[in-house]
Amino acid sequence: MEDQVVTETAPITEESVTEMRPTSDQEKTEQIQEDLKLREIELGYRLLSDTKWGALRVYKDTASWVKQAGDDAYYKTRMRLLRDKDYPTNKEIGDALKERGIWTDDSDKEIEETIKKIEEIEKQQEKAKGNKAKDLLASRQAAYTKFFELIAQKESLFGETVETRAEAERRLALIVTAVRKDEEDKRGPQLAKLFTSTEDFMELPEADQDFIRLECNKFWTNIDLGGESFFGASPEGATSSSDGQ
């Protein structure tokens, strides 16, 4: 497994990659931040050194053993709910909304175009410096804001469907599998889980759930801002009108 072939150096902590105050050598500090993020990706986890549960590791959601847990949860939930007529699919809801002109193909197209714009900006950011880099950062933030507004609008219209419920279960499974207690001489699935099940996680106080979700999302977002882990199942999954079959 991936985690067993990694050579560890000094531990990376969440605090080490948070945004620093502006300095006269800002470009250098930004490069240091990027290097630290790359080291986390190489190690495959982020270390949370000081939590109410002690030191924790958040493993990347693309690690094979983490992703498998999420995929299993999605598939099982999806198949179970497809047998339940009380749960509509995205296509069933989408067709009804399109008939009434509330959500159209153009609405989905706007989401797709926003995703493409984000990807284009991020490609330009790879080589940009100075004022150009600042302008691109502002453009990227504006594009992300628009994306989330569009997704929130769509989710409010579609409500809970087979696909959204399955995706929610997938995300829970990823969290339960990826968050491990930090122990010496152990890695990945060898480490003890912080939560024994999704039910165990959901029994936490809401503030604790929010803390764990936030730390997972922050790390997973840093790994892949434009791909699978950030947009949910995929950018396509955020806009697809598949029938759920």
Record keyword descriptors for this entry:
about 240 residues; mainly alpha; 3-stranded antiparallel beta sheet; 10 helices; flat; disordered N terminus; disordered C terminus
Quick structural summary:
The chain has helices at residues 26-43, 64-82, 90-99, 105-125, 130-158, 162-178, 198-202, 206-223, 228-231, 235-239; strands spanning 45-48, 56-59, 179-181. The protein is mostly helical and 245 residues long.
The percent range for helix content is: 55-70%
Helix/strand/pairing class, anyone?
mainly alpha
Number of strands: 3
Low-confidence stretches: 1-18, 225-245
Mean pLDDT: 81
Element order: H for helix, E for strand: HEEHHHHHEHHHH
| Terminal residue distance | 32 Å
> Biggest sheet: strands side by side, in what order?
1-2-3
Shape, please? flat
Largest sheet: 3 strands, antiparallel
The count of helical stretches stands at 10
**Proportion of residues in β-strands:** under 5%
Rounded to the nearest angstrom, the radius of gyration is: 20 Å
Describe this structure in words.
By secondary structure, the protein is mostly helical. It has a domain at 90-160. The chain contains 10 helices and 3 strands; from the N terminus they run H-E-E-H-H-H-H-H-E-H-H-H-H. Strands 1-2-3 form a 3-stranded antiparallel sheet. Strand 1 (45-48) and strand 2 (56-59) form a beta hairpin. Residues 1-18 and 225-245 have low confidence and may be disordered.
